[in-house]
Amino acid sequence: MLEALEKMSTTQQEQFKDTANKILQCTFLSRDKKDNREAYYFLMSYKQIFDDFFKILGYEITLDMASGSVMLTGPNAQTVMKLKRDETLILLILRLLYHEKMKDTSLNENIVCSISDIHEKYDYLEIKKKLNKTDLVSALRLYRRINLIEATGDLTTSACKIVILPTILMAIKSEDITEVVNTINRINVEEAAE
Predict the structure, then answer these.
(1) Tens digits of per-residue pLDDT, 51-78?
(2) Which architecture characterizes domain 85-193 according to CATH?
């Protein structure tokens, strides 16, 4: 691996460092997100070197070229992001919206939803505790930071449009969308029992 790195130009070595730091910071990269595109293609071009580098640290890179997504997974539970209840529900709702809207779009189109779509789905699922604006905005900022969504506008306004990136398929791997709904229902039942 060191040999391969040494063969790179100074510019490529810098780009390797920047890309490695970006994926360590964000966990996900999406080819569809402008500020990820260069890192995505660089990682794709030098995948074996990245694999060797992260293997030393105990991490693994998953590259899905069909969706243009990259995910970094860690060796143990300490590297798993702990989500709050509302963050989990919002993530699951985003996954449901992605699934629903994917049926109505072509493969080349972005999956776009609005803040009101999230509220409507939340209400439709009859979740006992109401979703407040602060928790929603906080969760959406988190998902934007780790490259699961991209916002086109101010997240605090209802006019904001949210592009749900294909990386969400890696974050919630469930092939069966009913599993996602069942998870939401289980969280709702657990909350009602408290």
Answers:
(1) 999 999 899 999 999 999 999 998 775 5
(2) Orthogonal Bundle (1.10)
- CB under 8 Å to 10, separation ≥6 — which residues? none
CATH class of domain segment(s) 2-79: mainly alpha
**For 112-142, what is each residue's pLDDT tens digit?**
999 999 999 988 887 777 888 999 999 999 9
Whose structure tokens read 């995505």?
A: 40
